[in-house]
Design brief:
CATH superfamily: Lipoprotein localisation LolA/LolB/LppX
Low-confidence stretches: 22-29
CATH class: Mainly Beta
Mean pLDDT: 79
Structural class: alpha+beta
Strand content: 35-45%
Number of helices: 6
Largest sheet: 11 strands, antiparallel
Strand order of the largest sheet: 6-5-4-3-2-1-11-10-9-8-7
Number of domains: 1
CATH topology: outer membrane lipoprotein receptor (LolB), chain A
Helix content: 25-40%
CATH architecture: Clam
Oligomer: single chain
Number of strands: 11
Length: 215
Protein backbone atom coordinates (compact mmCIF):
# COMPACT_ATOMS: atom_id res chain seq x y z
CA UNK A 1 0.00 0.00 0.00
CA UNK A 2 1.41 3.39 -0.96
CA UNK A 3 2.08 5.96 1.75
CA UNK A 4 -0.45 8.41 0.31
CA UNK A 5 -3.19 5.80 0.15
CA UNK A 6 -2.47 4.64 3.70
CA UNK A 7 -3.00 8.16 5.03
CA UNK A 8 -6.23 8.58 3.04
CA UNK A 9 -7.52 5.43 4.75
CA UNK A 10 -6.38 6.67 8.14
CA UNK A 11 -8.07 10.04 7.76
CA UNK A 12 -11.32 8.45 6.66
CA UNK A 13 -11.39 5.97 9.53
CA UNK A 14 -10.70 8.78 11.98
CA UNK A 15 -13.46 11.08 10.86
CA UNK A 16 -16.51 9.38 9.50
CA UNK A 17 -17.35 6.94 12.30
CA UNK A 18 -17.47 9.71 14.89
CA UNK A 19 -19.76 11.80 12.74
CA UNK A 20 -22.09 8.84 12.34
CA UNK A 21 -22.51 8.26 16.08
CA UNK A 22 -24.74 11.27 16.58
CA UNK A 23 -28.53 10.85 16.71
CA UNK A 24 -30.09 11.15 13.23
CA UNK A 25 -33.82 11.84 13.05
CA UNK A 26 -35.43 8.49 12.14
CA UNK A 27 -38.16 10.02 9.97
CA UNK A 28 -35.86 12.33 7.98
CA UNK A 29 -36.63 11.66 4.31
CA UNK A 30 -33.61 13.24 2.67
CA UNK A 31 -29.84 13.26 3.06
CA UNK A 32 -29.64 16.93 4.03
CA UNK A 33 -31.95 16.44 6.99
CA UNK A 34 -29.98 13.39 8.11
CA UNK A 35 -26.61 15.15 7.81
CA UNK A 36 -27.90 18.22 9.65
CA UNK A 37 -28.84 15.94 12.55
CA UNK A 38 -25.35 14.40 12.80
CA UNK A 39 -23.80 17.27 14.74
CA UNK A 40 -22.19 16.10 17.97
CA UNK A 41 -20.29 18.34 20.41
CA UNK A 42 -16.61 17.60 21.06
CA UNK A 43 -14.87 15.91 22.72
CA UNK A 44 -16.37 12.59 21.63
CA UNK A 45 -14.91 9.08 21.75
CA UNK A 46 -16.17 5.69 20.61
CA UNK A 47 -14.80 2.15 20.32
CA UNK A 48 -14.23 0.69 16.85
CA UNK A 49 -13.20 -2.59 15.23
CA UNK A 50 -12.05 -2.58 11.62
CA UNK A 51 -11.64 -5.38 9.10
CA UNK A 52 -9.69 -4.47 5.97
CA UNK A 53 -10.05 -6.75 2.93
CA UNK A 54 -7.13 -6.52 0.49
CA UNK A 55 -6.64 -8.40 -2.76
CA UNK A 56 -3.04 -9.24 -1.88
CA UNK A 57 -3.98 -10.98 1.39
CA UNK A 58 -5.75 -14.31 2.00
CA UNK A 59 -7.57 -13.01 5.09
CA UNK A 60 -8.56 -9.54 6.32
CA UNK A 61 -6.47 -7.35 8.60
CA UNK A 62 -8.37 -6.69 11.84
CA UNK A 63 -7.60 -3.88 14.31
CA UNK A 64 -9.55 -2.44 17.22
CA UNK A 65 -9.34 0.49 19.58
CA UNK A 66 -10.89 3.91 20.10
CA UNK A 67 -11.64 6.89 17.88
CA UNK A 68 -11.69 10.41 19.26
CA UNK A 69 -12.80 13.80 17.90
CA UNK A 70 -11.29 16.54 20.07
CA UNK A 71 -12.94 19.46 18.27
CA UNK A 72 -12.11 21.40 15.09
CA UNK A 73 -9.64 19.42 12.99
CA UNK A 74 -8.15 17.57 15.98
CA UNK A 75 -8.71 13.82 15.78
CA UNK A 76 -7.19 10.73 17.32
CA UNK A 77 -7.21 7.00 16.51
CA UNK A 78 -5.89 4.66 19.19
CA UNK A 79 -5.31 1.06 18.15
CA UNK A 80 -5.06 -1.40 21.06
CA UNK A 81 -5.00 -4.69 19.13
CA UNK A 82 -3.08 -6.36 17.58
CA UNK A 83 -0.41 -3.75 18.52
CA UNK A 84 -0.60 -0.34 20.18
CA UNK A 85 -0.56 2.61 17.79
CA UNK A 86 -1.74 6.22 18.03
CA UNK A 87 -2.50 8.37 14.98
CA UNK A 88 -3.51 12.01 15.27
CA UNK A 89 -4.49 14.94 13.07
CA UNK A 90 -3.97 18.37 14.64
CA UNK A 91 -2.93 21.84 13.50
CA UNK A 92 -2.49 20.74 9.90
CA UNK A 93 -0.17 17.84 10.81
CA UNK A 94 -0.70 14.08 10.63
CA UNK A 95 1.30 12.05 13.18
CA UNK A 96 1.64 8.31 13.75
CA UNK A 97 3.25 6.76 16.83
CA UNK A 98 4.04 3.06 17.27
CA UNK A 99 5.61 1.27 20.19
CA UNK A 100 9.37 1.07 19.83
CA UNK A 101 9.51 3.44 16.85
CA UNK A 102 10.03 7.14 16.37
CA UNK A 103 6.88 9.19 15.61
CA UNK A 104 6.23 9.96 11.93
CA UNK A 105 4.49 13.13 10.80
CA UNK A 106 3.86 15.26 7.74
CA UNK A 107 1.92 18.37 6.78
CA UNK A 108 -1.51 18.12 5.17
CA UNK A 109 -0.27 20.68 2.64
CA UNK A 110 1.78 17.85 1.11
CA UNK A 111 -1.38 15.84 0.43
CA UNK A 112 -4.16 17.96 -1.10
CA UNK A 113 -6.53 14.98 -1.25
CA UNK A 114 -6.25 14.53 2.53
CA UNK A 115 -7.05 18.18 3.11
CA UNK A 116 -10.18 17.84 0.98
CA UNK A 117 -11.26 14.87 3.11
CA UNK A 118 -10.50 16.70 6.34
CA UNK A 119 -12.46 19.81 5.37
CA UNK A 120 -15.37 17.71 4.14
CA UNK A 121 -15.65 15.44 7.16
CA UNK A 122 -15.35 18.33 9.58
CA UNK A 123 -18.42 19.64 7.75
CA UNK A 124 -20.08 16.27 8.43
CA UNK A 125 -19.17 16.45 12.10
CA UNK A 126 -20.64 19.95 12.21
CA UNK A 127 -23.83 18.80 10.49
CA UNK A 128 -23.32 21.11 7.49
CA UNK A 129 -24.79 19.39 4.37
CA UNK A 130 -24.09 22.31 2.01
CA UNK A 131 -20.38 22.30 2.83
CA UNK A 132 -20.19 18.52 2.57
CA UNK A 133 -21.83 18.52 -0.86
CA UNK A 134 -19.01 20.70 -2.21
CA UNK A 135 -16.71 17.66 -2.13
CA UNK A 136 -19.10 14.68 -2.29
CA UNK A 137 -22.20 13.55 -4.13
CA UNK A 138 -24.42 12.56 -1.23
CA UNK A 139 -27.30 10.06 -1.42
CA UNK A 140 -29.50 8.42 1.19
CA UNK A 141 -30.98 4.94 0.83
CA UNK A 142 -33.70 3.50 3.07
CA UNK A 143 -35.20 0.05 3.64
CA UNK A 144 -37.82 0.10 6.41
CA UNK A 145 -35.99 1.48 9.46
CA UNK A 146 -32.55 0.84 7.95
CA UNK A 147 -30.59 3.52 6.11
CA UNK A 148 -27.29 4.03 4.28
CA UNK A 149 -25.66 7.39 3.68
CA UNK A 150 -23.40 7.20 0.61
CA UNK A 151 -20.61 9.70 -0.16
CA UNK A 152 -19.00 9.68 -3.62
CA UNK A 153 -15.94 11.96 -4.03
CA UNK A 154 -16.21 14.82 -6.52
CA UNK A 155 -12.46 15.57 -6.44
CA UNK A 156 -10.59 13.42 -8.98
CA UNK A 157 -7.57 13.13 -6.68
CA UNK A 158 -9.71 11.65 -3.91
CA UNK A 159 -11.64 9.45 -6.35
CA UNK A 160 -8.37 7.80 -7.41
CA UNK A 161 -8.10 6.50 -3.84
CA UNK A 162 -11.71 6.05 -2.70
CA UNK A 163 -14.67 4.96 -4.83
CA UNK A 164 -17.31 5.57 -2.15
CA UNK A 165 -17.97 5.67 1.58
CA UNK A 166 -21.14 4.42 3.26
CA UNK A 167 -22.46 4.82 6.78
CA UNK A 168 -25.00 2.12 7.71
CA UNK A 169 -27.62 2.75 10.37
CA UNK A 170 -30.88 1.48 11.78
CA UNK A 171 -33.47 3.71 13.43
CA UNK A 172 -31.53 6.29 15.42
CA UNK A 173 -28.25 4.30 15.62
CA UNK A 174 -25.36 4.34 13.14
CA UNK A 175 -23.70 0.95 13.31
CA UNK A 176 -20.93 0.78 10.69
CA UNK A 177 -18.80 2.57 8.14
CA UNK A 178 -17.83 0.89 4.86
CA UNK A 179 -15.21 2.25 2.46
CA UNK A 180 -14.68 0.89 -1.05
CA UNK A 181 -11.30 1.73 -2.56
CA UNK A 182 -10.92 2.50 -6.24
CA UNK A 183 -8.70 -0.59 -6.65
CA UNK A 184 -11.25 -3.02 -5.21
CA UNK A 185 -10.01 -3.24 -1.61
CA UNK A 186 -12.58 -2.57 1.12
CA UNK A 187 -12.72 -1.82 4.85
CA UNK A 188 -15.63 -2.10 7.28
CA UNK A 189 -15.65 -0.48 10.73
CA UNK A 190 -18.01 -1.69 13.45
CA UNK A 191 -18.83 1.20 15.79
CA UNK A 192 -19.82 1.69 19.40
CA UNK A 193 -21.31 -1.38 21.07
CA UNK A 194 -21.10 -3.32 17.79
CA UNK A 195 -17.29 -3.03 17.90
CA UNK A 196 -17.19 -5.84 20.46
CA UNK A 197 -18.94 -8.18 18.01
CA UNK A 198 -16.20 -8.48 15.37
CA UNK A 199 -16.12 -12.17 14.28
CA UNK A 200 -12.93 -14.18 14.69
CA UNK A 201 -12.91 -14.78 10.91
CA UNK A 202 -14.84 -11.88 9.34
CA UNK A 203 -16.12 -11.93 5.76
CA UNK A 204 -17.36 -9.06 3.61
CA UNK A 205 -20.85 -10.50 3.28
CA UNK A 206 -21.10 -11.39 6.96
CA UNK A 207 -20.09 -7.93 8.18
CA UNK A 208 -22.44 -6.14 5.78
CA UNK A 209 -25.28 -8.32 7.06
CA UNK A 210 -24.19 -7.66 10.65
CA UNK A 211 -24.27 -3.91 10.06
CA UNK A 212 -27.87 -4.13 8.88
CA UNK A 213 -27.58 -1.11 6.62
CA UNK A 214 -29.81 -0.35 3.67
CA UNK A 215 -28.22 -1.56 0.44
Amino acid sequence: MTSGKKWVLLLTSLLLPLASLATPTPDADDANALIASLHRPAPARTPFAEARFMRVLDKPLVVSGELGWLGGDKLERRVEKPAKEVSTIADGEVTQEREGKKPRSFSLNRAPQLKVLLDSFVALLAGDPSRLSQSFDVTLGRDADRWALTLTPRDARVAKQIARIQVYGSGTVARCMRMDDADGDMSIDLLGELAGSMPAAPTREGLIAQCGGAM
